[in-house]
Write a structure and sequence with these properties.
alpha+beta; six-stranded antiparallel beta sheet; 11 helices; binds flavin mononucleotide
Length: 288
């Protein structure tokens, strides 16, 4: 590899035109909202009892084959018991109590959700490298996922869009959303309506799961997108488990205008793509 290729390696994406088209194709666009094509299909499926029965009762069937029962763990460790309890508690909550979360609550949530687990300095062929390990695994240790937090109702923090800095454990204010107009801009992005399934009004904060797609693709080319999206899934699950541990209500949602969110968060590149959001709030008593 030539020297100039090496210098460009980290900066350039290696995605094919068809993958770039695919990434554009899967975004929700403003006109999807107006034409309601995608949303009509979703609401039709959501409101059709026959389809719902088939969805919920569907089981993958391999046909006839020998089957073996799995034994229970005889002496479960404390960690086993704790994870088992968390798994049982994990669920999506779409309604929240009017009392907003505190800064302490959201801080605890972020710590359990995405955190450093260690830092070591290694010598790799004569080069000293500081390596941070994290609770989330990442293909090639490239960590393309960037987490943003929209403070909607937490009183001790200015309302606005923040980047979560996992290394320093801080929130970096990217854009204040202190006025009604600026918050309305965010509502546009999440397509907030009074009939939405999730209670956006009482949501204390929104987590935005975004990915810097060229981070994986510069090394793994098109397959890098698979790794990046898998990583987003890991983050979503970690957020659900953190919510379960702290008994907070949370629900992921995908109906987000991606390009507008990219602009609102002032992301530096078009390949830094927001994929998903999660609404978080205090559990409503009936949801507990
Ligand atoms: C990636 C992802 C996207 C989701 N998007 C939505 C959504 O747009 N709206 C919604 O009400 N729920 C959404 N959910 C929540 C699912 O509907 C929920 O996980 C599923 O019904 C199972 O329920 P449970 O999480 O309580 O086990 C999403 C969940 C995931 C993991």
């Amino acid at each position: 590899m030539r020297q100039e290729d090496i210098l460009n390696l980290l900066a350039e994406h290696q995605l094919s035109t068809s993958t770039l088209d695919f990434l554009d194709q899967i975004k929700f666009k403003r006109y999807d909202r107006e034409s309601r094509d995608k949303f009509n299909l979703i609401s039709y499926i959501n409101s059709n009892p026959k389809l719902q029965k088939r969805i919920h009762e569907a089981c993958y069937d391999v046909g006839f084959c020998p089957t073996f029962s799995l034994p229970s763990v005889l002496h479960p460790s404390a960690a086993f018991v704790a994870l088992n309890k968390l798994n049982k508690r994990r669920k999506s909550s779409r309604v929240f109590a009017p009392e907003p979360l505190t800064l302490q609550d959201i801080s605890g949530f972020l710590q359990l959700f995405y955190t450093l687990t260690g830092c070591e300095i290694v010598n790799f062929k004569g080069t000293e490298i500081t390596k941070y390990s994290r609770n989330i695994a990442s293909g090639g240790a490239l960590y393309p996922t960037e987490i943003y937090l929209i403070n909607h109702r937490i009183q001790e923090l200015p309302f606005g869009a923040y980047r979560y800095n996992v290394v320093d454990f801080t929130l970096e204010l990217i854009k204040p959303l202190e006025t009604k107009e600026s918050m309305n801009e965010f509502y546009e992005v999440i397509m907030k309506t009074s009939t939405a399934a999730i209670d956006f009004e009482q949501t204390s904060a929104f987590v935005v799961f975004s990915s810097v797609l060229n981070k994986h693709s510069f090394k793994y080319k098109d397959f890098g997108v698979v790794l990046s999206l898998i990583e987003i899934g890991e983050f979503v699950h970690a957020a659900y488990l953190a919510g379960a541990a702290l008994e907070l209500g949370c629900c992921a949602f995908g109906g987000v205008l991606s390009n507008q969110l990219n602009q609102l968060l002032e992301l530096k590149s078009k390949l830094h793509q927001p994929f998903l959001c999660m609404a978080i709030g205090n559990l409503k008593k009936t949801e507990e």
